[in-house]
Amino acid sequence: DVKVTQSSRYLVKRTGEKVFLECVQDMDHENMFWYRQDPGLGLRLIYFSYDVKMKEKGDIPEGYSVSREKKERFSLILESASTNQTSMYLCASSLPRTGSTDTQYFGPGTRLTVL
Amino acid sequence: DQQVKQNSPSLSVQEGRISILNCDYTNSMFDYFLWYKKYPAEGPTFLISISSIKDKNEDGRFTVFLNKSAKHLSLHIVPSQPGDSAVYFCAASATLRGFNKFYFGSGTKLNVKP
Description:
The structure holds two protein chains of two kinds. By secondary structure, chain A is mostly beta strands.
């Protein structure tokens, strides 16, 4: 069974703080993703990575950066947290496309509140 | 601009009846479609998928239908059970420079009443 874990379920931070969200997967997946989920907007892709040290911007990268130093770990960084970054953050991983098994596995999410 | 849309934010169905969740997409490059189910305080879990070369895929009580000409897919749950109450996300996948990228709808909250 694929397992994707996220370092915190709930976080409360202050405006201007630097925030680190950690994600670890145990299935040797090449691809990893960071999304945020907001009511009425669904899941929006922030950043993704298809290999160690490789990263690609998603649809809403502004205010975020990422780090992938090891294959199993993908970190999301909020350089200077703002209240509009209050959201549910979801990490996911997947294998490269193999035709019939093109799916992502999600972690439980981190509910971040920025005051 | 959202490329995958779920226009019904919520749906209420009686236990034992059919639930039909709908999803529309705009990008003809999408070639793989998925449904995820999400309970509160948990991450989404994969439910069922369909390749663009098919028009139907069935897995137990869950069937996904794809109408490529209309750029529309639907998820049928028969019979619906109270445990099916959750938020359902539709997703579409396209290959971008050799790797897959996923686009999600905004979700439909299904409530199955006993």
